[in-house]
Amino acid sequence: MRPLFADMTAVLAASDARAAGLNPYAHPSPFDPLGRPHVYGPWWLELHRLGLNRGDRAWLGLLLSVSASAVMVRWLRPISWHGMAVAFLLMVSPPVLLAYERANNDLVVFLLLSLAGGGLMKDGVRRSALAAGLVWFAAALKMYPLVAVAALGARGGRRRGFALGLVVCVGFGLVWWCWRADFNQAMTSVPVPSAVTAYGLRIIAIAWEVIDPEQGWFLAGLLAGLGYWVWLAWGDTEKIPAEWMGMYVIGASCWISCYLLTANFAYRAVWLLLPAGVWLRMAQEGQSSSRRCWPALAGLLFLCWLRSMHPHIAVIETPAGLRVVAAGLGIENGMALGITIFLACAVLRMSWRRWRETAPKQAI
Question: Which of the 8 DSSP states describes residue 30?
Fold first, then answer.
């Protein structure tokens, strides 16, 4: 799409508007080529103070994409040919490439929260505090990452996780209060996704209306996709080592929150790479509780690559082609809903185990 690194361009254009004394929340935006207003936290509007402007979009977009790719490689860390194939196909899947192409600032948040998850891989008050600071900063930038506070209980005891989570929430509340006018303006301009650009609960209803002539095929695909993940979620299959819980919960919580809010534009599938890294490590190391990790990875790959059918939907004219599209959209939406349920069940099970493990021992 044009301009190259379109979302990075929009952020820099909003900062340029603020530097010029103009309203970055105006529609159309005075400097963005597509006229998009600013829809993120107010701190992005201070980029001009770092000497950055629209002329820096190319090298910033490239740097962001390369940095995110490096983190993905480091986290997925394949050690077998099978693992290498899975990691490669995930990293070049349409949703991930869309994030690179647009240089969306979700990649900035992805980097911050990946560092937070890395900090939680080893126990320690300082590491947990650093992770909490990164979660707070990410939330101040894009709001929805606040849900990642759930990961702070992955290491240490209950009290530490609760205390750090409370500090992060209070800190975010202070940021919101201090810049509440900016946040309120941004919230009024948040784009509404459509059936072919996002994942989310409301997308199922939108797609149902769009595919009106072949709703039976759509429903069949929806149930098939949902059934796959419900089958995987059935039973006690997510005995994840404690050091990986933080990364898993960060990716799962960000995906789940955006899905429920129907704010999951396709590029937010990058959050699924964090749980995928856990599945891949468990599968390659042959852990006893990893028997369904390969099927989970296969389902994630299928979900991500289904996105490649969307550019061809507009040219479908035959009844048979429409049925294929209806079934494909149903499967995609069913699998998106299914993986959300799967991750939610896994996080709840892990949280319950962790809660019991870190409970204070009563004296006998």
Answer: S
Give the pLDDT of residue 362.
Answer: 47
Closest CA to 142 of 99, 107, 91: 107
Q: How far apart are CA 143 and CA 221, in angstroms?
A: 33
Domain boundaries, the chain: 1-48, 198-350
Rg of the chain over Cα atoms, rounded to whole angstroms, equals 21
Q: How many CA atoms lie within 13 A of 307 on its CB side?
A: 22
Burial of 209 (0-12, 13-18, 19+ CB in 10 A): exposed
User: E strands, the chain, where?
Assistant: 198-199, 264-265
| Average pLDDT by stretches of 10, the chain with 364 residues | 88 95 89 90 94 94 95 91 93 94 95 95 89 96 94 79 93 95 87 75 84 84 93 68 90 94 85 94 73 90 88 70 85 94 88 69 46
Count CB neighbours of 137 within 10 A: 20
CA dihedral (120, 121, 127, 130) positive or negative = negative
Output the CA torsion sign for 229, 233, 237, 243.
Answer: positive
Residue 201: its pLDDT value, please?
85
Residue with tokens 């095929």: 217
Q: Please report the pLDDT score of residue 314 as a whole number.
A: 63
Closest CA to 95 of 199, 202, 204, 1: 199
Q: Which two tokens stand for residue 161?
A: 């996780």
Residue 249: which of 83, 139, 123, 114 has the closest Cα? 114
Separation between Cα atoms, residue 271 and residue 107, nearest integer Å: 10
Do 103 and 225 contact (CB within 8 A), yes or no? no
Distance CA 324, CA 317 (A): 11
DSSP secondary structure string, 315-350? G--SHHHHHHHHHHHHHHHHHHHHHHHHHHHHHHHH
